Amino acid sequence: MSETFQKVAYIGLRNDDGSYLMNVPLYIKVSEVTKNGLTKQQESLIHKISEIMMKHYERQINEEIAKRRNANEDI
Which of 20, 38, 39, 56 could form a disulfide with 30 if both were Cys (CB 3.0 to 4.6 A apart)? Predict the structure, then answer.
């Protein structure tokens, strides 16, 4: 039985002067594929990233609402 790997990201290596040297791909070992065609690792990663992004956007939206409320109070 062969092992299957999924590329998930790249790490950009740099020279001493800061210029790009090369990109190195990062892989995870995948097991079975779920009914939607993703591996369990891919689904988990999607859920984690979605949770982080939702918190990030919620914070941005709340900051924008507060900024607009403060702007209206200054009028």
Answer: 39
